Amino acid sequence: MAYNTNFDQVGQAFIAHYYSKFDVPDVAARTAGLTDLYDADLSFMTFEGTPTDCQPLPDGSILVTVIGQLKTDDDPVNSFNHCFVLKPNTTGSFYISNEIFRLILH
């Protein structure tokens, strides 16, 4: 498989979709598809991701990295780095094959 020439568009669209799942005040809507990540009744998370970098990989996958800020409940804002490898499936969509999340505590 060759490099994906739409790597930046796919990566940017993925990040917008992924983090929008967390920035919803309605508990039911916020937890749809992400219920394993936090206690929906006790936690409210917002993400402010600014720089997003995307690079194509030789097998058609896309490396996506985000640097941003995370706010949970009344806790102070913390910076984070989040990296994904998006791998193409047979239908032309992508799935997360690898992921690294690093919370930067000061």
From TrEMBL:
Q: Which locations, inside or outside the cell, does it occupy?
A: Cytoplasm; Nucleus
Q: Does the keyword Cytoplasm apply?
A: yes
Q: Which UniProt keywords apply?
A: Cytoplasm, Nucleus, Protein transport, Transport
Keyword hit for Protein transport? yes
Any one Pfam family here would be NTF2
| PROSITE patterns listed in its UniProt record | NTF2_DOMAIN
Which Gene Ontology BP annotations are present?
mRNA transport; nucleocytoplasmic transport; protein transport
Per UniProt, residues of the NTF2 domain are 10-45, 46-103
| Transmembrane segments annotated in the record for this chain | none
Q: What is this protein called?
A: NTF2 domain-containing protein
What function does this protein fulfil?
Has a role in nuclear-cytoplasmic transport of proteins and mRNAs.
- Give the CC-aspect GO terms: cytoplasm; nucleus
Q: Which domain of life is it from?
A: Eukaryota
